[in-house]
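ok, trying the design again with the full structure, not the truncated one.
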C-alpha cells in the first residue's frame, strides 16, 4: 500500500526495473544514462512510498526482495503497455521505421538470412531486423526480443504462437565420404561409420541422443554450433543427422534416409500479444512465415 505517495509515475517503475535486471545501481545508471545518485534516490523514494524493502543488498549487488518481485510483475505489465502505446507503435504500415529483434538459434539465423529475410528492406528501407542467434532462451515478456523461434509452444497467456512448420529428421553424408566409406544399407545400421555429434546444450536434443546411441560408431567431431557440424559433414568428416529443413538445402550432402524414431518437432513463431499489434513486428512475422511456407 502506498504511504501518502503522489501518483506513481512510470519513470519510477522504469528505474526500478532497470535495477532489478542489472542487479546493481551502477548497471541501471549506465543502462538508462542517468546519474547513479538519481537511481539511488528514486529507489529510496519507492521503498519509502511502499513501506517495504524492494531490494536486498548482497556482495554481488542487489536483488529484488519478495515485495520487489511482486512489484516487478506489475511493473513489467506497465512496461508492455507503455511499449504498445509508444509513438513507434502508432506508425502506419507504409512508414515503418523500427528495429525488430528476432531470437533464434545460430543455424536458423543463418537460414533466415539465406532465404531472403533482409529483402524486407526493399519495401521498408527504415526497418532494421536484429537476429539474436544463440541457444539461450529469451524472455519476451520482459522485452528481450519482439519475436522468437521456438520448438515448444509457450503456455504463458500473454504470448501468441504462430505455427510455422513441422521439422522431420534424416541422415546425411557428403558425397566424398560415401565414395570413400560406402553408404549405410539402413539408417539404423551405422556400425563402423564416422559421425559428427552436437555437444554441450545441443547434446540433449533427440537427434543427438539417437546418433550417440548407435552401436559401434566412431565420433570424430563434436560442436555446439550446428553450422560447424554441417560444415564438418559437408567436408566429408562423417555422417550427421539434421532437420530436413537444413540438410536438404546443402548441395554437398546426400540424404540417406529419414530417421523415423526421432519425433518431428513443430516450429513456432512466438511474440507477446502487445508486440503482435505493432506493425513492424507484423511485417517481420509475416515474412518469416512466408519463408517457412516456401521451404516445407
Amino acid at each position: 500500500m502506498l504511504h501518502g505517495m503522489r501518483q506513481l509515475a512510470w519513470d519510477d517503475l522504469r528505474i526500478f526495473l532497470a535495477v532489478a535486471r542489472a542487479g546493481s545501481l551502477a548497471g541501471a545508471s549506465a543502462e538508462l544514462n542517468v546519474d547513479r545518485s538519481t537511481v539511488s534516490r528514486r529507489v529510496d523514494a519507492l521503498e519509502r512510498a511502499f513501506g517495504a524493502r524492494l531490494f536486498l543488498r548482497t556482495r554481488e549487488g542487489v536483488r529484488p526482495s519478495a515485495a520487489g518481485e511482486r512489484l516487478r510483475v506489475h511493473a513489467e505489465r506497465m512496461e508492455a503497455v507503455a511499449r504498445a502505446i509508444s509513438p513507434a507503435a502508432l506508425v502506419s504500415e507504409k512508414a515503418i521505421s523500427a528495429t525488430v529483434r528476432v531470437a533464434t538459434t545460430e543455424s536458423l539465423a543463418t537460414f533466415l538470412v539465406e532465404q531472403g529475410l533482409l529483402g524486407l528492406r526493399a519495401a521498408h528501407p527504415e526497418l532494421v531486423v536484429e537476429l539474436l542467434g544463440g541457444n539461450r532462451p529469451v524472455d519476451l515478456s520482459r522485452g528481450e526480443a519482439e519475436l522468437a523461434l521456438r520448438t515448444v509452444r509457450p503456455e504463458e497467456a500473454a504470448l501468441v504462437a504462430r505455427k510455422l512448420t513441422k521439422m522431420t529428421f534424416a541422415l546425411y553424408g557428403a558425397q566424398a565420404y560415401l565414395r570413400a566409406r560406402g553408404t549405410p544399407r539402413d539408417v539404423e545400421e551405422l556400425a563402423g561409420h564416422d559421425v559428427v555429434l552436437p555437444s554441450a546444450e545441443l547434446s540433449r536434443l533427440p537427434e543427438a541422443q539417437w546418433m550417440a546411441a548407435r552401436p559401434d560408431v566412431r565420433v570424430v567431431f563434436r560442436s555446439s554450433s550446428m553450422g560447424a557440424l554441417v560444415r564438418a559433414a559437408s567436408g566429408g568428416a562423417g555422417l550427421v543427422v539434421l532437420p530436413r529443413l537444413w540438410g536438404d538445402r546443402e548441395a554437398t550432402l546426400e540424404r540417406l534416409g529419414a530417421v523415423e524414431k526421432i519425433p518431428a518437432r513443430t516450429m513456432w513463431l512466438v511474440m507477446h500479444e502487445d508486440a503482435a499489434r505493432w506493425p513492424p513486428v507484423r511485417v517481420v512475422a509475416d515474412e518469416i512465415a512466408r519463408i517457412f511456407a516456401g521451404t516445407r
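Keeping the full-length input from now on. DSSP finds ten helices and twelve strands in the chain.
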